[in-house]
Write a structure and sequence with these properties.
The complex is a heterodimer of chains A (66) and B (147). With 66 residues, chain A is an alpha+beta fold. Helix content of chain A is 33%, strand content 35%. Chain A has two helices and four strands, in the order ββαββα. In chain A, strands 1-2-4-3 form a four-stranded antiparallel β-sheet, with helices on one face. In chain A, a hairpin with a 2-residue loop joins strand 3 (43-47) and strand 4. The N and C termini of chain A lie far apart (46 Å). Chain B is of the alpha+beta class. Chain B is built from three helices and seven strands, in the order βαββββααββ. Chain B has a five-stranded antiparallel β-sheet with strand order 1-5-4-3-2. In chain B, a hairpin with a 5-residue loop joins strand 4 (76-80) and strand 5 (86-91). Chain B is elongated, with a radius of gyration of 17 Å. The chains are: A alpha+beta (66), B alpha+beta (147). Chain A binds chain B through residues 1-11, 13, 15, 17, 30, 33-34, 36-40, 55, 57-58, 60-62, 64-66, and chain B through 5-13, 16, 85, 87-88, 101, 104-105, 108-109, 111-113, 115-116, 118-120, 122-123, 125, 128, 135-143, 146-147. Strand 1 (3-9) of chain A pairs antiparallel with strand 7 of chain B.
């Protein structure tokens, strides 16, 4: 069964997304759409059923302070 | 001193950002959030238009007016960038009072949840289980109609 696990880390403001049970391209497309909304880039693992992304939005805010 | 700073963010979804601002609040109970397709002028604590980040005036597309910000604060804004992300337009003063790093973190966490929920729904997933472990919350989404 297709499922996606999302882990919210409230201390660091990060989101970790892992997809299971997909065929590769479907998972990629679904996760890419979600990651695009989150402003993060899909960091693809080299197995068809496992994709993971992490990004610290808070860190990004601090680093880009103008 | 009400000097504004531009703070680049990863926020891209206008609806989720507006709702996150309403839910996290900036000091007052009921927060009114303005949304403008054309950036509008921001005003300081004395009601004066400011020009700290732009000679033509500090402007933003999403604005929480100072009446809704705790104390004698300035307007809080988010301006839309060419790449689709928003830059927060925050005054120096507000970054020490209403819009502190902990507020930014709370806003980010709320935004993340709203965006994930929206994206999951659009992709045909529903939240099935939720497990809290300290500061981490794991939500498992299942495909509706999936095998």
């Amino acid at each position: 069964m297709e499922n996606i696990q999302v882990v919210f880390d409230d201390v660091h403001g990060t989101v970790e997304i892992t997809g299971h049970g997909f065929s590769g391209p479907v998972c990629e497309k679904t996760l890419a759409a979600i990651c695009d909304k989150l402003g993060i880039t899909v960091e693809e693992k080299k197995t068809a059923e496992f994709y993971q992304t992490t990004k610290s939005a808070v860190k990004n805010l601090a680093q880009n302070k103008g | 001193m009400s000097c504004y700073h531009l703070v680049k963010t990863v926020f891209k979804d206008q609806e989720c950002l507006v709702n996150a601002l309403k839910e996290v609040k900036v000091g007052c109970e009921a927060v009114e959030v303005e949304v403008h397709s054309t950036p509008q002028q921001l005003f300081d604590y004395q009601g004066r238009p400011t020009r700290y980040t732009n000679a033509n005036g500090d402007k933003a597309n999403i604005i929480v007016r100072r009446q809704h910000v705790r104390g004698a604060a300035n307007d809080v804004g988010f301006s839309l960038n060419a790449d689709g992300t928003y830059s927060a337009v925050l005054s120096e003063y507000d970054q020490r009072t209403a819009c502190t790093p902990s507020w930014v973190l709370a806003l980010t966490n709320k935004y993340n949840r709203l965006v994930v929920a929206k994206a999951m729904k659009a992709a045909g997933f529903v939240g099935a289980t939720k497990k809290v472990n300290g500061s981490k919350t794991a939500v498992n989404y299942l495909k509706v109609g999936g095998r």
